[in-house]
Specification:
alpha/beta; Quinone Oxidoreductase, Chain A, domain 1; Rossmann fold; 2 domains; 7-stranded mixed beta sheet; 6-stranded parallel beta sheet; 15 strands
Length: 343
């Protein structure tokens, strides 16, 4: 089969590799579409995060092509969305209800468990990883369940209530999904801070009440947010950019007793002023992936039309073009959102 393989620094090569063989407890999925995630881009840009030979890709949907003899909840031909990192069910984190932080967490970026930028992907723990999708759901919609679930988990982590004000920093796919879920639960005011006019307009379409461009607001940005929240600040700030400078200043948007939810991936050491949190009695909380129940809930939300997916899709590219029309396009354009790869 053909797969996109990390071949060096900022280099991916589409090459023939051995088709995965499955055990009795596994399923082989024919990949129909797989989204390029921010974590794929990070690994592509930064050598050493993943070894040469790694096959990326975890936001995928497809069709069950082979089913192990011990698997009984899916059959050959079933259309499925893939939860790429189900919990083991036995470690302390899983037993405590944090299967999203399982000790054996692996989202497919390893030599031991190749990802889905390939014609086929081997799925372990299929009883937890594979979710049948309705005939009315497209593979494009199903491939977007994974990033939507990440946003849903972050909103749930914050325990935001109807009537609260929220600030969303950055409106890539995760930020835009956060906006949708905030609107769904009835947040009183949703303020987006985003430099891209295209993304800002999409945020408004999805329910944002106000979009502020930090490049034009400058030093007045924080006071503008304060003014739009009755002078007290937001109940919750969702940091979705993964930019150190943005992370460090996010606490300034919070009201006393507010929460900052950290979603964007930041790889380098980032300064933070504890006194800023102490004076506001504010909480800094990380948000990691999503649980199996949350993944299933998001699938239902999309199937019922509660959450839009069409606004995320920048384009679909062939596997052979994953680097030039996928990775490089996302890295060069601040307006591009989600690109899906078709093997």
């Amino acid at each position: 089969m053909y797969a996109a393989v990390l071949s060096g620094e900022k280099s991916i090569t589409v090459q023939q590799v051995e088709k995965p063989a499955i055990s009795a407890n596994e399923v082989l999925v024919k990949v129909e579409l797989c989204g390029i995630c921010g974590t794929d881009l990070h690994a592509y840009l930064h050598p050493g995060l993943c070894p040469v030979g790694t096959i990326f890709g975890h936001e995928c949907a497809g069709v069950a092509a082979e089913v192990g003899s011990s698997v009984d909840h899916v059959k050959v031909g079933d259309r499925v969305a893939v939860h790429p990192a189900p919990g083991c069910g036995t470690c302390l984190n899983c037993l405590r209800g944090h299967d999203n932080a399982c000790d054996e967490l692996n989202i497919g970026n390893s030599l031991e468990r190749p990802g889905a930028f390939a014609e086929f992907v081997r799925i372990a723990r299929p009883e937890h990883a594979l979710y049948k999708i309705p005939e009315t759901m497209s593979f494009a919609e199903a491939a977007l369940i994974e990033p939507l679930a990440t946003a849903f988990h972050a909103v749930r982590q914050s325990h935001i209530k109807s009537g609260d004000c929220a600030v969303v920093l950055g409106c890539g796919p995760i930020g835009l999904a956060v906006v949708q879920y905030l609107k769904l639960i009835g947040a009183d005011k949703i303020i987006v801070v985003e430099i891209s006019a295209v993304r800002g307009e999409l945020a408004v379409q999805l329910g944002a009440d106000l979009v502020l461009d930090p490049s034009t607001e400058g030093a007045a940005l924080v006071s503008k947010v304060q003014g739009e929240t009755g002078g007290e600040g937001a109940a919750v700030v969702y940091e979705c950019t993964g930019v150190s400078k943005v992370f460090s200043s996010a606490v300034e948007y919070l009201r006393t007793g507010g929460q900052m939810i950290s979603i964007g991936v930041i790889e380098q050491d980032t300064p933070i002023n504890p006194l800023s949190f102490i004076l506001k009695e504010a909480v800094l909380r990380g948000s990691m992936c999503y649980s199996e129940k949350e993944f299933a809930q998001v699938l239902d939300d999309v199937a019922m039309g509660k959450i839009r997916t069409d606004v995320f899709l920048t384009g679909i590219v062939d596997l052979k073009d994953i680097e030039t029309q996928g990775m490089q396009r996302l890295l060069s354009s601040s307006d591009a959102l989600k690109i899906l790869v078709k093997p």
